[in-house]
Amino acid sequence: MQVQGTVFRYGDNVDTDVIIPARYLNTSNHKELAQHCMEDLDQNFIKQVKKGDIMVADRNFGCGSSREHAPIAIKESGISCVIARTFARIFYRNAINIGLPILECPEACDAIKAGDVVSVDFSTGTITNVTTGSVFHSEPFPPFMQDLIANGGLAGYIANRGKRA
User: Fold this and answer.
1) pTM
2) Which of 6, 82, 127, 133 is the most exposed place for a label (fewest CB within 10 A)?
3) What is its EC number (predicted)?
């Protein structure tokens, strides 16, 4: 699986409260959550994001409360992948469970700028900055996690696995 998109760039400690503010957690409508994604940090994000775009951040992305609404809002906004120096552990797990691909790659985070076009090959872990021609390598997901993400997350994986049995 490969994706390519324009980069939205953020710094350290982007917490779940700025990814999706708590005042919007009274809905489980994914599209409504996406309409408020990142609004307390970047009011232009939802106006500018396009399907397939990529989010890049520094350390401890997704820290704060353990709400799974955060990766849901990011995924539903159109972001195809989040690359960070490090992720908060619960956010990491929630992202995989809802089918949002995330990669840790400090070297890519040092070199990628806002507005760059980046492509990611999840089977090899290769991150290519199409704008500059730079290539970076992260740890690829094991095949079962690639299958989980390809099925849209844990719920889709289980539902489709039942169809195969």
Assistant:
1) 0.93
2) 133
3) 4.2.1.33
29-68 pLDDT, tens digit each: 999 999 999 999 999 999 999 999 999 999 999 999 888 9
Half-sphere exposure of 84 (CA within 13 A, CB side): 24
Structure tokens of 134? 């730079």
pLDDT tens digit sequence for 61-102: 999 988 899 999 999 999 999 999 999 999 999 999 999 999
- Element at 91 (helix H, strand E): helix 89-98
Q: How far apart are CA 32 and CA 78, in angstroms?
A: 13
| Kind of pairing between the strands at 81-84 and 54-57 | parallel
Question: Token pair for residue 37?
Answer: 């994604």
Six-digit token pair at 58?
Answer: 């520094």
Distance CA 42, CA 127 (A): 24
